């Protein structure tokens, strides 16, 4: 998946307004809350067939850290 597409889809599912990039800290976003973790788990599972455990979800800070959990090889 192209990074730009990933960012756009992530913005949609997490209801993020404004621009995001690899350095965006998800936990600093106004719309990011505990429900966002569940949405993120479902999004990653449906798009990448990757199951994330609680430890992985808690470790996510930036979008890049999320991409690393998914696997950087999945992005162009």
Structure notes:
The protein has helices at residues 3-13, 34-48, 54-59, 63-70. It is globular, with a radius of gyration of 11 Å. The chain is mainly α. The chain is built from four helices and no strands.
Task: Summarize this structure briefly.
By secondary structure, the chain is an all-alpha fold.
| Beta-strand percent range | under 5%
Order of helices and strands: HHHH
Low-confidence residue ranges: none
Q: Provide the residue-averaged pLDDT.
A: 95
Distance between the termini: 6 Å
List keywords for this structure.
globular, Non-ribosomal Peptide Synthetase Peptidyl Carrier Protein, Chain A, about 80 residues, mainly alpha, 4 helices
Write the layout of secondary structure elements.
Blueprint: H1 3-13, H2 34-48, H3 54-59, H4 63-70
